Amino acid sequence: MKKREVLASVKDERLVQKRRDQMIKGAVTLFKEKGFHRTTTREIAKAAGFSIGTLYEYIRSKEDVLYLVCDSIYDHVRERLEEDLEQNIGTLSSLKLGVGHYFRVVDEMQDEVLVMYQEAKSLTKDALPYVLKKEFEMAAMFESLIVRCVENGELQLSEKQIELISHNIIVKGQMWAFRRWALQKLYTLDEYIELQTEQLFHGIQSSGHAKCEP
User: Fold this and answer.
1) Which of 11, 10, 109 is closest to 68 using CA atoms?
2) CB–CB of 198/100 below 8 Å?
3) Average pLDDT of the segment spanning 111-132
4) Smallest Cα–Cα separation from 94: which of 49, 149, 12?
5) Torsion sign across C-alpha atoms 129, 132, 138, 143
6) Among the ranges given (69-73, 87-91, 101-105, 190-194), the one the predictor scored with the smallest mean pLDDT
7) 8 contacts 57 by C-beta, under 8 angstroms
8) What whole-number distance in Å separates Cα of residue 162 and Cα of residue 213?
9) 37, 57, 90, 110: which has the highest count of C-beta atoms within 10 A?
10) Close Cβ partners of 142 (under 8 Å, ≥ 6 residues apart)
11) Residue of 180 and 120 predicted with greater confidence
12) Taking phi first (over 0 means left), then psi (-120 to 50 degrees means alpha), and beta for anything else, what does residue 49 get?
């Protein structure tokens, strides 16, 4: 799906990205505390460290900021999953590495993840389908890793099992943000990743008859 364009009057792409990153950081704090509808663009500008006039040089509406928050999460996940996976692609170790990368992105962006799911309903009609599509694309990244493991003979799974496992990975990662009030009192991030990964692979091996250990 084509990326939704957020118009800016400034032409320097690096400056646009820098200012939008500042907006995202400020907006996430405000959206979490006050909600999307009760937050004003003036408050977002102040939290970002510049004037309301400057804000409108980089976006056209408050909805644009929410869209940028959602989109940044998926961009970070994609970038992280693409790191260091090519060498061992199609192995259980590469799948485990990908799961760990994803969980760490959720940890780094846990406020953004919470805001996205609380406020995504406020996205405009043209932006919401794009964001929902990105959610499926994120699951598809893991589906691709699992398929390669199946093709290499490291796992024996049906198409339906592969699809469900990929979505389970997404939910297990998001749970670190959704239930952080409980989970982060019980586990370090490394412990959570290790336990969830062990449980994931144990489930795959029990139902899918994996041929080797990760």
Assistant:
1) 109
2) no
3) 80
4) 149
5) negative
6) 87-91
7) yes
8) 18
9) 90
10) 95, 98, 99, 102, 165, 166, 169, 170
11) 180
12) left
